Amino acid sequence: MREYILRRTVSLFLTIFSVVTFNFFLFRLMPIDPMHLFARDPRLGPVIRERLIKIFGLDKPVWVQYVLYLKELLRGNMGISFYYKKPVTKILVPRLFNTILLVGVGEVLSIILGVILGMISAVKRGSKIDIANIFFAILIWSAPGFWIGVMLMMAFMGILPTSGIVSPEIIHKDLWTYLWDVGRHMILPTLTLTLVYYTEYTLIMRSSLVEVLTEDYILTAKAKGLGTLGILLRHALKNASLPLVTLTAVNLGIIVAGDVEVEIVFSWPGLGLLIYESVIHRDYPMLQAAFLLVTISVVVANFLADILYAVLDPRVSYRVKRGLEV
Amino acid sequence: MLERRYWEVLTTLAMTTLILLATQYVAATTATTYMVMQEQPVIFRVGWTYDIDTLNPITFETDGAGFIIYRIYDGLFGAKPDMTFAPRLVESWEVSDDRMTWTFHIRKDAKWHDGEPLTAEDVAFTFNLWSEVWAYSAMHFEETEATDDYTVVVHTDIPLSVDLMLYYLHTTVILPKHIWENVDPELFENYPNTVGNGPFKVVEWVEGQYITLEKFDDYYGEKPKVDRIIFKYFDSAEGMVRALKNHEIDFALNVPAHAVEDLKGIEGIKISVLPSMTRRDLGISCYEEGLGHPALRDKWVRLAMAYAIDRQAIVDMIYLGYAIPGDSVISPAFGDWYNPNLKGIEFNLEKAAQILEEHGYIDTDGDGIREDPEGNPLRFRLFMVWSEHPRIAEMLKSWFNQIGIDIVPEMMDEDTLSARIYADYDEDDIPDFDFDLFLWGWTGEPDPDMFLYCETTDSIEEWWSEVGWSNETYDELYEEQLVAASKDERRQIIWKMQEILYWENPYIFLCYLKIIDAYWSDWTGFVETPDGLITYAWRDSDMNVHLAAPPAPPPAPGPGVPMTMIAGGVVALVIVIGVAYAIVRRRGG
């Protein structure tokens, strides 16, 4: 087990380092020289232009920029945004919180809803409930997220706010009115996200549970006189949850990256929207930092999933020990 | 054994998530400022699609930033809706006979947002700072000195035309010396200070979301009628229109034409359609040493293309009639500056073909596309940046093909286009204009000077010219209008310049957009400016906005039905999980 974790940790850091390097050079390969970004506006005179170029270090060779970038990154400095001309972290961190709040809640809700519906479907497989459930899930799964968002928006027009995270005109008297305001703004985007993601969990939960429920040991458990709920919780659920863990780990990356579609439709100021805007603004330092955050969280989530896998299924780490799998 | 560990892992994960969310809430709330007010303030909410990059008056680049900066910083003069300029920070002023020494007496009651008095020292400091870093509005300013606390003397290097001087003074926002003099000159490009002297001060700015301005109580002039004004940013115009319909905003700035029909049916929403200064153009690469198609350097090819464009059709089909066909570098909204006598180029494909024929552009290989005398086919790259451009390109292509010109459209974003225009592959510090044609546009300023400057030869080296066109007579006229003795004389010169551009066609001016604003009718007091109802350059445009009737008491915010439903759901969920856990515990022993 220890060896397994060690191997995984080493590969974690190697992955992150190569991503940092790849990210850096990726943006230098883009067809636009950042120096030209400051050329368009006639209000910006040549003096300012030159100073900006100097501040951003764009007059130095690329490899010097790379070494500087690594050095500053280790100190937690992600650079200055080309667009906002402020430290990237100042803009990024609040956006990150907004995204984790929205997508995190949406993800948790969709897991709960998806697992429960998937369980019902698997137990009652073949019944009308099962068919209705699968039909509805596939229907929603095929609909684009932004479309669901717009439909919900139309349905709740005039009842719930459709844009932003707070109403800037409300002067909040205390914490509760603030939370109330944020909560109201969250309902529609969270609902959209829950609908978009729960279908996947339901379908996967159902299929893997159906497989497990046909195993012999389930029959044995039934023969012992255990109730349906007991069989589900004690014997079936754990074995059926492995694919679910993988899916959750993959989706953890989305929690950080944000859901661009939903964030744009609801003008939710999250990381997804920030990435979209930064692409438009050609804000390379911002994009670099955002990509870095997203990759790190995906890699770390996968790392955690690997560990959790080994905990749930001891065969995984044994196999590593025997050299069967790396 | 394993059973328990499994549950432990799950509960730990759940707890961590909860703690994370809780800290997030606290972090988010502490970032907001709380204000307790006795009365509900009158707040005007504007929705727009302009983003703000920085509120630093020296380095900002976006229109949204300029919009806000003009509201928090006053200038010595300000534009009026009739295209003249009225004194703002100035009480009285004199100019020497040679128009090179300008004396301004500053108001004694002006204050900074932090309470400090505004003096001639601030003005002199700003002007000298501007001429040090700024290329445009302080281009002709030399040393500025404060002769006493409230008198400032500006020297210019040429006898500037009075209108132009007033325009420069409108553009030049005055900065507080006591703040900016302490800023390291190497860093002040990024200095975020917003202490200004204008009618509004900044309360809160959340990047990419909204900015809240509050009326400045010590403002010397007439104060705004609203207490606060909020500019809320939308990524898409559709989102903005939806928010207007949902009454999340009171005013939608610059509504797209296709949304008008939708909004017309809604009771209580008013729509204002006004001519604007916004221009849509077809830019043509004219630079002699540039990388554009060599045939485009011939004015006859450009003229033939101008004859081959039906501007009215573009207005009708693309802009649904919410535009005016274009002919000049400035729109009719510029008032007297616009030359109404530009006549002669009408949509005429035969004439266009005839011009090409007469000047040696003949289809030698019979493929339907003409070749220039060197044998290059007249096949031009057309760069496009906005969503309506592909449809314009289609129309252009069908007309141009009929006169033996072909175009190859290519979609890109604005930054890529500007990188192509200003590409400097040979590193001689002069752009290489690596394009043939582009579709793009400009928005307005209360004086035609900047629009006219962008076609001069000097502007090529300054990286302002987008097309690299150069004409000696035009350059001379530009210099003349700078020093014209009277407004009338300057207008005559500017009319001549427009005439030259009309026949030379470095750009083909397609149309001028009408600006569409929509708002809820409980608001009134709007002023019609040459660029819409609430505008960038007209600082006064939102000063008189007020509620038509006294505000109704606001609905008390607080938990209603949905909240109790959510709470109920959460409680139910906890119970279900608890029961399930208990069962497992009991069975598992």
Report what the structure shows.
The complex is a heterodimer of chains A (326) and B (589). With 326 residues, chain A is mainly α. Chain A folds into 2 domains: 2-74, no CATH class; 88-321, MetI-like fold, CATH 1.10.3720. Chain A has helices spanning 2-28, 34-37, 46-55, 62-74, 88-123, 128-142, 145-155, 175-213, 216-223, 228-240, 242-257, 260-265, 271-281, 284-312, 315-321. The longest helix of chain A has 39 residues, at 175-213. Chain B is α+β, with helices and mostly antiparallel strands and 589 residues long. Chain B has helices at residues 2-30, 63-72, 120-133, 162-171, 177-180, 237-245, 260-264, 299-307, 311-317, 349-358, 389-402, 414-421, 449-453, 458-461, 472-482, 487-504, 561-588; strands at 43-48, 77-79, 85-87, 90-95, 101-106, 141-148, 151-156, 200-206, 210-215, 228-233, 251-252, 269-284, 323-325, 379-384, 406-411, 437-442, 507-520, 523-524, 546-547. Residues 26-38 and 554-562 of chain B have low confidence and may be disordered. At the A-B interface, helix 3, helix 5, helix 8, helix 10 and helix 13 of A face helix 1, strand 10, helix 6, helix 12 and helix 17 of B.
